[in-house]
């Protein structure tokens, strides 16, 4: 059974667990649940421009990655933060925040694409890498100052 949606960035599927969504995958998946069905519907609405904020339970990672995930969730659509700004908020080094962003298992839903370097745009885990990050920021109406 093929589960997921086709997006402008390619196919996307999700995984979940008892606490909420656990991962977004850049491929078709096979796992389905009422939460995954709802999350896929919200993702379709996001890509269609009808959804500005996801309302889904998230299974946060432990430690710094979870703290960074919570900070990323607080960034409104159309806005960005730097690794340094998040580092101050969580009491970590910007490089560690960059690594935590890279370890975010739920890109788009937990918007790591909204976190930029102070001089560069930073990286992104989606197929297409930075080009996909730029596409997402433009889709959300964000301004790229870098």
List keywords for this structure.
2 domains, 5 helices, two-stranded parallel sheet, Arc Repressor Mutant, subunit A, 146 residues, alpha+beta
Concise structural overview:
With 146 residues, this protein is an alpha+beta fold. It is built from five helices and five strands; from the N terminus they run E-E-E-H-H-E-H-H-E-H. The chain has helices at 34-47, 63-73, 83-90, 94-102, 130-139; strands spanning 5-7, 10-17, 20-25, 81-82, 115-116.
Explain what the structure shows.
By secondary structure, the chain is α+β, with helices and mostly antiparallel strands. The chain folds into two domains: 5-47, no CATH class; 63-139, Arc Repressor Mutant, subunit A, CATH 1.10.10.10. Helices cover 36% and strands 14% of the residues. The strands form two sheets. It has a three-stranded antiparallel beta sheet, with helices on one face. It has a two-stranded parallel ribbon with strand order 4-5. The longest helix has 14 residues, at 34-47.
| Count of spatially separate domains | 2
SSE sequence, one letter per element: EEEHHEHHEH
CATH class of the largest domain equals Mainly Alpha
Shape: globular
> Gap between N and C termini, in Å?
42 Å
CATH architecture of the largest domain: Orthogonal Bundle
Radius of gyration: 15 Å
The helix content is 25-40%
């Amino acid at each position: 059974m093929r589960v997921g949606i086709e997006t402008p960035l390619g196919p996307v599927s999700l995984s979940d667990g008892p606490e909420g969504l656990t991962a977004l995958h850049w491929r078709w998946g096979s796992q389905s649940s009422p939460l995954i069905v709802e999350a896929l519907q919200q993702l379709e609405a996001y890509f269609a421009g009808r959804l500005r904020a996801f309302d889904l339970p998230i299974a946060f990672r432990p430690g710094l990655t979870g703290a960074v995930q919570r900070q990323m969730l607080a960034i409104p659509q159309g806005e960005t933060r730097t690794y340094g700004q998040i580092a101050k908020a969580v009491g970590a080094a910007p490089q560690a925040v960059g690594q935590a962003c890279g370890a975010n298992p739920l890109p788009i839903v937990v918007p790591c694409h909204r976190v930029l370097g102070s001089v560069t745009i930073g990286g992104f885990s989606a197929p297409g890498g930075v080009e996909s990050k730029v596409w997402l920021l433009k889709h959300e109406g964000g301004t790229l100052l870098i």
